[in-house]
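For homework, think about our next protein:
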Amino acid sequence: MSNFCGKLAKTVFDYSLTAVGTVCISPLLVYIAYRIKKEDPGPVFFAHERIGKDGKPFPCYKFRSMVVNSQEMLEKYLAENSDARAEWERDFKLKDDPRITPIGKVLRRTSLDELPQIFNVLRGEMSLVGPRPVIQEELDKYYGETAKLYATVKPGITGLWQVSGRSDLGYDQRVALDAEYIKHRSFWGDVVILWKTIGVVLMKKGAY
């Protein structure tokens, strides 16, 4: 019964806070969309497939922070830079990514690029707090037995890894934090993580 109540509280908390928050930040969403279109004509949003609860893939939304031809640019850049290729194969991201637009750099440093994930929460695909939304290749390569644990919950906009170092952490640490969150998650634990996330975002710690 207590487990059911905990899940119900989390669901109500996710939907109510996200609905109210979406209305409050709508002017900011519109302004960011305007800046993206002005700087690099193309789609405002970017949807990339991530793995959710029960192993189901879903389109994870973000504000577009890269140039439109980002995939072609990435392939060319990695072919010409062995160090960058090694970094990409290790972390699935680049600290100095040439594909990122000027406004995209601001969005990433402030984590504002992840704001559209509120729509994933409203669609029931994500929670406000949870493990990182990852791609299937990451699960296969790094998670091992933890992948089964990962599939038991919805991924979150923020989580334990975001308030513990974010991209400054190694991949083993990220997986360990995801597992720790899932095993010990609680409603009040989520509230604490959300509160800490505010400080992490303001300090721009570990974001790139």
Remarks:
- The first strand starts at residue 45 and ends at 51.
- The radius of gyration is 17 Å.
- The CA atoms of residues 110 and 202 lie 7 Å apart.
- Strands lie at 45-51, 57-63, 127-129, 156-158.
